[in-house]
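Dear support,

Our group has been running a series of protein-ligand predictions, and this particular one with KG4 is the one our PI (initials K.S.) wants archived with full inputs and outputs. We had some confusion internally about which version of the output was final, so please treat the block below as the authoritative record. The input we submitted was:
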Amino acid sequence: MTKVSYSDKIAAYSLKKSPVILAIETSCDETAASIVVSGREVLSNVIISSAAEHVKYGGVVPEIASRAHTDAVDKAVKSALIDAELDFCDLDAVACTYGAGLLGALLVGVSYAKALAFGLEIPLVPVSHVRGHLAAAYLADKTLDPPFIGLIVSGGHTALAVVSDYDKMQILGGTLDDAAGEAFDKVARVLGLEYPGGPNVEKLAQKGTASVVFPKMLKGTGGYNFSYSGLKTAVINYVRSAVSAGREYSPADVAASFQAAALDVLADKAVEAAREFGLSTIAVGGGVAANGYLRQKLAEKCLSGSIKLVLPNKKECTDNAAMIGAEGFIQYRNRNFAGLDLNACASVMLK
Ligand code: KG4
Ligand code: ZN
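Confirmed final output from the archive:
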């Protein structure tokens, strides 16, 4: 009797109408697992973070992150199943982040997902982490349908796109140098704040006023592109020259001024894009979208422009697996299934 291979079984697999997808995310320092039904309903969303282990190094140490994923991935998946009151046999597919991210970290999730998909004889769905960030919007608003303007702002990516269909986007612009989150992390270091930088800059900014004039970074220019290195350098120079001249300065005012300069431009360009392309919805994703100042700016500008704003809750802005389940569903419907030769990729294109 000839044995039927995994790839033959998957080739013959019939798509389920309301698939139960287990999603796994291990691209950075969060080991995350989630159960998502039909790409919209989150039954569980487990995150085990190794962030505390990286604090003393001032950033994520890849080897420590990989080891932490190895320790946590099985626990995260089992907790996700328990929270959802499901068992392995209830799963219709396994989705996993295959890139972008730290290679060693990604490989833990990819390898776990492969083994599970093979053992359960269900499809393995490869998901782009960056697309996942935007797909979190489908969880936030169950009626959200393309077309809309998508704004992705994370530690590794800053991009503005026209999302014309679930699997189609036209990139309008991106960062020419640093990503928005990266700039927050670098400014945090200059201000002596601990990793993770973004939330700590935001906290400090709440105590200050945006009174320091920093360059407005491609505001009103540069089309839909962004640039953060000039702003970052201006903050570094401001702090260093104050310190070396023994001049007093307010770190809280620096944080508030940097935050306003870094984020106003995102809200302005997203609204401008909605106007230019005649779209009435803006959806935002990525860690920086957890920032209260950005959320408020976007809300104000969208309100005055009669634009609907879709913002994922803060847990689903920063790294999580529910967003991977949302994007995984889109790929599942397209039968974008991976073979057991799926590899991790440090960088993947957004498109
Ligand atoms: O999306 P994410 O969790 O991971 C990546 O895919 O990069 O984004 C992490 C980035 C970090 O740079 C972090 O400093 C930034 O998002 N971030 C924030 C806030 N929370 C996270 N930046 C500004 N304000 C926040 N509240
Ligand atoms: Zn991310």
